[in-house]
Amino acid sequence: MITLNALADFTLDAARQVAWEGEAVELGPRSKSAIGEAHARFERLIEDPEITIYGVTSGYGQNAKVRLSPEERKTHANRPPLPAAASWGDPLPDRVTRAILFARLANIVEGHGGISLDLAEAVTQMLDGRPLPVIPARGQGGAGEILSLSHLFMDLAASREMAEKETVTLINGSPSATGLAVDAALAAARRIEIAAEVLALAAEGFNAPRGHYAEELDDYWNNPYDAWALERIRVLIDGGHGGERRPYQAPVSFRIIPRILGQARLAADTLLHCAEESLAAVSDNPVLLPPDQDNPNGRAVSTGGFHNAQAPMVMDMVTAAYANLCCLAGRLADKSMDGAISLLPPQLGAGEGRPYLGCLPMAITGYEEEARSLATATLIPGSESGGFGQNDVASPVFLAWSKQERAGGLLEQSLAALTPIALAALEITERPVPAPLERLAEANGVHVPRDRENLMLGPATGALAQWLRARIYEPVAKP
Asked: How many CA atoms lie within 13 A of 427 on its CB side?
């Protein structure tokens, strides 16, 4: 159980436990006190007949100019957000819906939403393991995130008496962007580590000179991410086989492994930073500010915090990194199969009771080209396509998440196709698998066995890709 008392409790580790591992949440005593006090202040605040608060004393969207009477406010507050649940299509994975729901609590935990403690606890209870509403991953082209959040909270809003502002607090803000960024960031961190393993295995299979990854380059290249990649490759190769190495330089594709891998780590770390910042951000519209000398009950201000501009841009960085890694995997596979370049036995001994692997680079080309088609900038719409009236700019964050999610899967397929080629190179030359890569080699042996000449490579390599994907989402071992 994760206890939430303040915004500082919204960490990536807590988000991972809640979203990926199904951990439940509860509000701590400090949070309960803050929520209760803020709700009482808000009820006093709206007693002022001159005050204007969006969605509370006024209508929504194009009706923001319409002032509501106290009686109309209560009727207005109890209209479930049915019209906004207008999208459909492929559902988000449950882990992403949980991440969005967890992120929603950031607007609530310190009282910025102005809602009652009873409703706040009802939101936390949605994370107790019960089936969650389905949020479509497609059709999310609206201003803000009301389309996705209406799907998430429609049933809750319809099941109870809602006070002023409570429905707005549920469906406004940018928790969807935060949840999507969290999911993409956590996956990217693990996916890049798996890519490092496969690329290091390919370098060792090719018998690339160790100088390509020399320790001295860590400082010479003057880039901490390249230095990380160089060191990671050295650790994974584990000193190599100790025998004679390739007598001259390897092709560019092998020499730039640290550069491409380092850039991918930079993109993943940037997304992690964005997700971490977004988790602890208050993005409600309107947002309830604490009291000050001039405003004893606080203030409610309208904001644009519901538009998280960083999340889609950084997810695009990750998508591009995945496409580059797919490209690199294809080149490494192709060069490893070409004996004239690799100095390895032709076709890695195919036809001697072993499967022919020469078509795997062709498959990578297909995955690579699809990934390249996704590596485009996800910009805010250039026309008034997000709605009408005040809703004149749509958020592109769902599209950015969908592109990186697809590109990540394509990278897994490409790495799965490169792995048996790299291991075959070691086997045919009777060189050992580096100890840090033995788990990868064992999985390859299960899914893509080398002793079946008539092995159907597509399903076999696809099973290895599924194993790689399972590693991305496996729980963190508890001490």
From this structure: 19
Residues 245 and 319 in one domain: yes
242: left (phi over 0), alpha (psi -120 to 50) or beta: left
- DSSP one-letter code for 27: E
Cite the DSSP H helix spans in 286-429: 310-337, 339-342, 360-374, 397-428
Q: What is the mean pLDDT of each run of 10 residues along the chain (479 residues)?
A: 96 96 96 95 88 82 79 80 80 96 96 94 96 91 86 91 89 94 97 98 95 94 96 93 87 96 98 96 90 91 88 97 98 93 82 83 95 94 65 88 97 97 93 96 92 84 96 81
Domain boundary among 114, 142, 173: 173
- 223 with 265, same domain: the answer is yes
d(CA 318, CA 330): 19
Q: Is the model's pTM score more than 0.90? A: yes
Structural domain for 105, as ranges: 2-173
Residue 448 has which token pair?
């893509």
Q: How far is CA 272 from CA 105, 114, 175, in A?
A: 19, 29, 16
